C-alpha cells in the first residue's frame, strides 16, 4: 500500500465529511483512511459509522480519550500501513487529482522522504492567491534554517511523509499550538525534502478552527527546548536556537497584539529584543510596539 490518509478529529462532526468525501473522490485503490477521534463529545461516531459500513476495507476508525491532536496524529501514524502518510485536517479538503499528483511526485523524486505540494486557502472572502513554493536544497541544514526563517510553510494535507520517520521523530505532546513547527523542523534537519508547485489541498478557514484559537495556543518557550533536542538535531544546527527563540517571541508578540493583549505583547517584544537586538530594525514590529504603549 502506498498511502495512509490520517485524519485526527475532535468535535468536527459537522465538517469531517468534507475531508472524507474529498479523499474518496480520488482515483485508485492504493490507499487507506485512518480516522482518530480524540474524545469527541459530539456525534462524530454517528457520522462516521455509515462510512465504516460502506467501506469496511478502506476506512478505519479509532476513538481515544481526549489527549490532544498531537497524540492523535502520532497514534494514526502507528496504525498506518502505507509507505507514505498523507495527513489531512478534519476541516480541510483535498483537491481533485491530489493523490495522482503525489503518485507522480513519488516517481519524479524517488529518494525524497518528504514531498511538499501547494495549497489554496479558502475563506469567507473567497480563495487566496497561490504563492509558488521555493525549491528546496539537497542540503538538509539549508532546508532546516530556511523553514525556521519562514521561507516556506507545510500545512497538513499538502504533503506526504514516509511512515518510518515516525519511528524516530513524532509530534511533541508537551506543546499545544505550533507543535507542527517542531515536528517539521526536526524532519527537515534529518531527512530529504522536495517541493512541487501543484496544489493538492484547500485549507478552509472558519472561526472555530483551532488555527484561530489563541487561548489554546500557549505562548511557551518550551517549543524551543523541544525543537532543539540534541538527540535529534545535528550539532551544527543547535547554534540557531537563539535566533529561533527570538523569532518565536516576535510571533507571540504579534498574536497577543492582534488579540488586544497589549501588556503581554510588550513582554514578548522585549524578550525578542533582548535575545537579538537586531530585531529592532524590523520596523513593522517596532511600530506595533510603539502603538501598544499606554494600552493594557
Q: Can you give a write-up of this model?
A:
- The chain has 296 residues and is of the alpha/beta class.
- It folds into 2 domains: 3-211, Spore Coat Polysaccharide Biosynthesis Protein SpsA, Chain A (Alpha-Beta Complex), CATH 3.90.550; 234-292.
- The protein contains 10 helices and 9 strands.
- A hairpin with a 2-residue loop joins β6 and β7.
- It starts with a strand and ends with a helix.
- Residues 210-218 have low confidence and may be disordered.
Low-confidence stretches: 210-218
Give the termini separation: 55 Å
- What CATH calls the topology of the largest domain is Spore Coat Polysaccharide Biosynthesis Protein SpsA, Chain A
Mean pLDDT: 92
Number of helices: 10
Rg, nearest Å: 20 Å
Note the beta-strand portion: 15-25%
DSSP helix fraction: 25-40%
Estimated structural class? alpha/beta
Count of all domains: 2
Total strands: the figure is 9
Shape: globular
Task: Supply the key terms.
nine-stranded mixed sheet; 296 residues; 10 helices; 2 domains; Spore Coat Polysaccharide Biosynthesis Protein SpsA, Chain A; alpha/beta
Map the helices and strands.
Elements (H helix, E strand, L loop, with lengths): L2 E7 L6 H9 L6 E8 L5 H11 L4 E6 L4 H11 L4 E4 L5 E2 L3 H11 L5 E10 L2 E2 L12 H9 L10 E4 L16 H12 L2 E12 L17 H6 L13 H18 L3 H14 L7 H10 L4
Parallel strand pairs: 1-2, 1-4, 2-3, 6-9
Antiparallel strand pairs: 4-8, 5-9, 6-7, 6-8
Helix pairs in contact: 5-6, 8-9, 8-10
Summarize it:
This protein is 38% helix and 19% strand. The chain is of the alpha/beta class and 296 residues long. It folds into two domains: 3-211, Alpha-Beta Complex (Spore Coat Polysaccharide Biosynthesis Protein SpsA, Chain A), CATH 3.90.550.10; 234-292.
